[in-house]
Design goal:
Distance between the termini of chain B: 76 Å
Oligomer: heterodimer
Distance between the termini of chain A: 16 Å
Order of helices and strands of chain A: EEHEEEHE
Radius of gyration of chain A: 11 Å
Structural class of chain B: alpha/beta
InterPro entries (chain A): Fe-transptr_FeoA-like (IPR007167), FeoA (IPR052713), FeoA_core_dom (IPR038157), Transcriptional_repressor_C (IPR008988)
Strand content of chain B: 5-15%
Protein name (chain A): Iron transporter
Keywords (chain A): Iron
GO molecular function, one term (chain A): transition metal ion binding
Largest interface: A-B, 33 and 42 residues
Helix content of chain A: 10-25%
Organism (chain A): Algibacter mikhailovii
Chain lengths: 78, 699
């Protein structure tokens, strides 16, 4: 199922499927935010924004409005 | 023959690059600026085996060669310019073992410039905690490099690193990625146009213009015209390049690195849960701030009292030792008290820099950014504005430079404009001396009234900064993309050496920078206060003796009257009394007026100025504080520094824009005179009005 990253819930894991390169700066891509890489929500800040993520082993925080431009597929735990 | 190797230290932020720099150079380092820009340039010298010396540059931390800020741009400018005297013989890329994958991206980029590149894998001591093991031989072979596995914390592997730097000629310059593979057609054409140039270099120059703005590089001027693609296309190619680089890195690490997650101990998530908690996170942050202010006030007071009395006796001593005359007076009344006025604040400033260094080094500062972003955004700021606002408590100049990593221009501009409201260390001397004069010493729940007042002043500074940001956000019509990304680094126990070097370096810069101005101003002031025009000054003794002839005062009393009469009719007294009408409604006398005027160059001059003026007119009291306490109000009688005039003065200093260097830096960072001029006028007028209201209301 296709979602965008801003809908990820705490502890959930997903794989990045597409990144809108017009809206996402190169810097974020270079930090590992690329199609095929795994992403996990570590924590949400108070007031639900920004998101503290583990992307491809890197820990970073981005705002939800940026996360909305990153498409993901959730990994379901069996 | 001794020969010097140029070494460039490069790495992502938070990889311990500066620790490596400190481990290699120790105290043999100096900090300056790159010519023409305000980016800090750190360089040092390191002795290598066999009598070889290395000149080491610690380049600003960057995630890649595609610069997005002035600091990052320094790295690429150096690496593209073979004629630069600092052009490295060897690039040393510092990585963190826990973030090897991401850190290697930069490594592959630098390697592709065909500069001998050495890989340093730092924080090796963390491997066992995280269940990481590395096949160094395999990695060296796959990455075509030599690897130094080191731990700056445990001081391991540094000798091996020095050895590898010495033998830099053995390192292969084979590229990691064939840049042609991302778009064969395009790069074939580029190659045909510039057959003698390295393709990846050309590519960097082309994309750099897109990313960061045009920079002139003689060899490459023609390249900028080679734009057969739109910037959207170029961006897509860069994305493709990044993906290819990661594919390469993933392949290398597949066999070279194993991570046994079951052995990993996860301290990070436990700490994060508490420190970024929606309630406890803020409570902890508040208590950390509270501790800092209590420390600055209470712990620093002991060495400060010592320094104060030491300078008083030094001044006394020179007066007795040197033959009496104008020169002795200049030293004992002008220079020594002026210098004392700055030296006394070293303990506090050192404490402040110490706390800021610890917050940065430990990784806690990023959590604060994360915690505050949503709130700050409501005021038109970014979570990243917290760092300038906190380091603005040390000095607005580095704070304004620290805004460079705020991605959105509007958020950055607002941060720059409001940062000077935070209580910088130059205000501290003024606050401290006035607080100690007008605020009683009692305690409230274990916290001193004086410390609480200081805390309130800091909060007032932050509050005003945030509030004016809110107004600016509404008023300024600037469209700019809002974007925010911050790395959340691992928690680290700060290394003593790193913290100590930072504190020494910053304190030194503060003392010498301010010291020069204060020395010059105190000499000028002394002259102006010791000489005057006309009868009233030159015949002071006669005038006073005739005036009080009938009153039978003792000799000491007469001398005092003469001194104050002289001061009043000196050059400075005349100037001071000319401006007095404009500041009297604020509760100040002309001496404070002079101090305010002279502190428009730099706030901390205030105390030095008062020290110089008062020591000219007063020989009874030794310390600055006692001299100020002894001053009387010329119109109202009673002590000059009352609760009302003290508060009024505190508020004036809280809001007024009195720092030439800050204005200069704002001009440079915003590239326009408009913003610094607005800052100067608005802040100072606001300060005057608030101080006026406070005094009239409280008196």
């Amino acid at each position: 199922m296709q979602d965008n990253l801003s809908e990820l819930k705490r502890g959930e894991q997903a794989i990045i499927t597409d990144v809108s390169s017009i809206h996402i700066p190169l810097k974020l891509l270079e930090m590992g935010c690329l199609p095929g890489n795994p992403v996990k929500l570590v924590q949400l800040a108070p007031f639900q924004d920004p998101m503290y993520l583990n992307i491809n082993g890197s820990h970073l925080a981005i705002r939800k409005e940026t996360a909305a431009h990153i498409l993901i597929e959730k990994v379901t735990h069996e | 023959m001794s020969k010097q190797i140029n070494v460039a230290l490069i790495g992502n932020p938070n990889t311990g690059k500066t620790s490596v720099f400190n481990a290699l150079t120790g105290l043999n380092q100096k900090v300056g600026n790159y010519p023409g820009i305000t980016v800090e340039k750190k360089e040092g010298v390191c002795k290598l085996p066999r009598g070889v010396k290395a000149h080491i540059i610690d380049l600003p931390g960057t995630y890649s060669l595609n610069a997005s800020s002035l600091d990052e741009n320094v790295v690429i400018e150096l690496l593209l310019n073979q004629n630069d005297k600092d052009f490295p013989d060897i690039a040393v890329v510092v990585t963190d073992v826990e973030n090897l994958k991401r850190n290697l991206l930069l490594f592959t980029q630098i390697k592709d410039l065909q500069i001998p590149t050495l890989l340093v894998i730092n924080m090796a001591d963390r491997m066992s905690y995280k269940g990481i093991s590395l096949d160094i031989e395999h990695l060296e072979e796959q990455l075509h490099t030599k690897i130094a596995l080191i731990s700056t914390r445990k001081n391991e592997g540094i000798d091996k690193l020095k050895q590898l730097i010495t033998n830099y000629k053995d390192i292969s310059v084979k590229a990691c990625l064939d840049i042609k593979s991302i778009d064969t057609n395009y790069f074939e054409n580029l190659h045909k146009a510039f057959p003698n140039q390295l393709l990846y270099k050309l590519w960097l120059v082309i994309t750099q213009d897109v990313n960061f703005g045009k920079t002139s590089r003689n060899d490459f001027d023609a390249v900028s015209d080679f734009k057969t693609k739109s910037s959207a296309d170029l961006k897509r190619l860069q994305q493709k390049e990044t993906i290819k680089r990661y594919q390469y890195i993933n392949n290398v690490l597949k066999a070279g690195q194993t991570i046994d997650a079951s052995k990993a101990k996860d301290l990070r998530s436990k700490l994060d849960r508490v420190l970024t908690h929606k309630f406890w996170g803020y409570v902890i942050f508040f208590f950390i701030l509270l501790t800092i202010f209590q420390a600055i006030y209470d712990w620093a007071s002991v060495p400060m009292d010592l320094i104060d009395s030491a300078f008083a006796s030094l001044s006394e001593w020179t007066k007795n030792m040197l033959p009496p005359g104008a020169f002795t007076n200049l030293i004992s009344e002008g220079i020594i008290p002026g210098l004392g006025g700055i030296v006394i604040f070293i303990p506090q400033i050192a404490f402040l820099f110490l706390f800021i260094a610890v917050l940065e080094e430990s990784g806690y500062m990023s959590r604060v950014v994360f915690l505050m972003d949503r709130i700050m955004r409501r005021f038109g700021l970014s979570g990243k504005s917290v760092v300038p606002l906190i380091s603005g408590t040390a000095c607005a100049i580095p704070a304004i430079m620290a805004t460079r990593n705020i991605e959105s221009w509007k958020e950055r501009l607002i941060t720059i404009l409001v940062t000077p409201f935070t209580t910088c260390s130059a205000r501290l001397p003024v606050y401290l001396i006035i607080i100690s004069l007008v605020i009683p010493e009692g305690r409230f729940f274990g916290l001193g009234y004086q410390a609480l007042t200081l805390m309130l002043l800091y909060l007032l500074g932050f509050g005003t900064a945030v509030l004016s940001a809110y107004i600016l956000n509404k008023v300024l019509k600037i469209k700019s993309k809002s974007f925010f990304v911050i790395e959340m680094p691992n928690y680290k126990l700060p290394l003593f050496k790193n913290v100590a070097l930072t504190v020494i370096e910053k304190t030194k810069a503060f003392v010498f920078g301010a010291g020069k101005i204060i020395l010059a101003i105190s000499i000028i002031l002394w002259f102006l206060a010791s000489y005057g025009p006309g009868e009233a000054f030159n015949n002071a003794e006669e005038i006073i003796r005739t005036e009080y002839a009938s009153e039978h005062l003792d000799e000491a009393e007469i001398q005092k009257k003469i001194a104050s009469h002289k001061l009043e009719h000196s050059y400075i007294g005349i100037t001071g009394r000319a401006i007095e009408p404009s500041i009297r409604p604020l509760g100040y006398d002309w001496k404070i007026g002079i101090a305010i005027v002279s502190s428009f160059a730099a706030r901390e001059v205030f105390v030095g100025t008062l020290a110089t003026i008062y020591s000219v007119g007063n020989d009874d009291e030794e310390t600055i504080k006692n001299r100020m306490a002894a001053e009387t109000n010329p119109t109202l009688g009673g002590p000059l520094f009352t609760f009302a005039s003290g508060i009024s003065l505190l508020l004036f200093y809280a809001f007024a824009m009195q720092c030439m260097s800050t204005l200069a830096i704002v001009k440079r960072e915003t590239n326009s005179w408009k913003w610094p001029v607005l800052q100067l006028i608005i802040m100072t007028v606001f300060a005057y009005i608030v101080a006026l209201i406070a005094f009239q209301f409280l008196k």
